[in-house]
Amino acid sequence: GAVVSQHPSRVICKSGTSVKIECRSLDFQATTMFWYRQFPKQSLMLMATSNEGSKATYEQGVEKDKFLINHASLTLSTLTVTSAHPEDSSFYICSAKSVLGYNEQFFGPGTRLTVL
Amino acid sequence: SQKIEQNSEALNIQEGKTATLTCNYTNYSPAYLQWYRQDPGRGPVFLLLIRENEKEKRKERLKVTFDTTLKQSLFHITASQPADSATYLCALDGYSSASKIIFGSGTRLSIRP
Fold first, then answer.
1. 20 to 30 Å CA-CA from B45: which of A36, A41, A71, A95?
2. B80 Cβ under 8 Å from any chain A Cβ
3. Per the CB < 8 Å rule, is B43 touching A95?
4. Using one digit for the tens of pLDDT, what is the confidence trace for B5-30?
5. Measured between alpha carbons, how far is residue A96 from residues A24, A53, B44, B82 in Å?
6. Apex CA A67: angle with CA A110 and CA B38, to 5°?
7. Cβ atoms of A95 and A33 closer than 8 Å
8. Does B106 touch chain A (CB under 8 A)?
């Protein structure tokens, strides 16, 4: 089946630093990738939709200058949390839709970000 | 606004019984309805997708129904096992590859031996 990887799986950083999270579709091409964040015992909240070769579309309330998204190729999207603060600590999950198939989304394993 | 409700935050059943989870939605006409499993600290794993013109779909011990009149989906796990314990998420999706999936809040299923 389709596999999506994320790196790193876990990161701890100091307040004010920037953190980059990578999302890769390993065995399929994805024109569209999605970034979610999830707080404990809550559902996934969509942050932005990332299209290869174009600017990301952010959901209402998500600061695009703080959460920089780059979709450089059909298999790679990155999320950079700039000037991270403790309230940015969360579980970040990416997903990708295959250009083929039935429109199902394949999710990465997630990245746990802790900002001290 | 679009809304998805999974009416049980948690469900606790005996091993071997059938677990039934419910997903209701409003203000949306999805092309697809999907069910995912999520284990703690992990990303969701796709289980089943059912299209708007399909009534029922099965995969091994899993069965999903989709009633677009009632705007409801039921997700069944037959012969449940402790390994089925997880959070199950219902999600709605549109037609295009760029459409956004909307997730329900999930039902935490626990299967006791």
1. A71
2. no
3. yes
4. 997 789 999 999 999 999 999 988 88
5. 9, 15, 12, 30
6. 20
7. yes
8. yes
